[in-house]
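Hi D.,

Good news: the full-assembly prediction came through. Inputs first.
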Amino acid sequence: MLKMSIEIYKEIALSQVPRCLGLGDRNPDSKTYGCFDRYYWHYKLIDFPNARFQEVALLLALLYKHEFPENIYFGKKKVFEWIRAAIQFWAKIQNGDGSFNEAYPFERGFCCTAFSTYAITETLLLLDKKWELGAVKKAGEWLLKNNNLEVSNQMASAALALYNVYLLTSDEKFLKGYKEKVSLLLKNQSPDGFYLEYDGYDIGYDSITLGILSRLHKKTKDKKLLDSMRQCLKFLESKIKDNGSFDYSKTSRKTQFLYPFGFAYLKSPILNKIEKGLIKNEILNPKWFDDRYVIQITTDYLETYLEMKNVDGY
Amino acid sequence: MLMDTKKLILLRLYLTTFGRFPFFSKFLKKILIKTQIKNKKEDRYVASSRYFDIHDLEENDK
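Then the structure:
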């Protein structure tokens, strides 16, 4: 039953790829070649590029690397070049201290640095490349020195980014940093199972945290992570309705989305509920998202498909 | 509170001068989190929220 409609994740993800590619400057002669913030390089409406758009590198790398039906991007040289350009532009816009900006110039955002470093390092691992390793190390060092304890999804992402930096550099300080971040994150887990998002639970962000921890567990097989994730899953299973919707009126951050990867990894019936909502087009999904966040959720949908289909090499 | 031209110019002025130094950039972030998120019980700022919900249609009919 669970695998019958899994194709919907692939269909939705693939439907968003041309849109994501359209966000990027794909002209190799351009000064902003590889920038995927269209509001910056094309419309010129803002005075700095949002580094989170560079996370498109991971979406493209997954498509480039994995062969599956209807994936027209598999093994395409152009896609490979765009991935490299996206990573190079990411390194180019890094702040001097190793951090990145999302909302305004010189922001030094923890969220942006954690998530974009994760996406870039995951791409490098996937393609077995060591491009821009200097920028990767600098971002890792910045993450070692900074925390955002009240926002669990960001802490989880920083932990995963640091683990990846360790895999790329073999520098033990990043492994130690990863362990510290995980320990701080697990301390912030409520006895009810949810991960803290400011002063309470937020179902949408908990689905992101669960997905990130699933990716970490896939790499580390750390039993502590699995136990913690199962507690969170139990909490979420009590909140999510039959079509994947939920009451977000009382959650701490009022997010309406669900990132499905964690549910796929843990083989949760929630995945089946989301599928029902998607088939009826009743719940928030990548097609309904704005440009700013479409890349991340599309990547999560694609990884959900790859995970459930057990696509070679994933 | 909406952004307007004056506020935007002042913000950019701050960011491109003091904001270059981590202390001032962190200070601004703290203020923004306090005023836009923590001290607000309703209408908290969350970038990835307020998307269309199918139930919005039902509420409009009431």
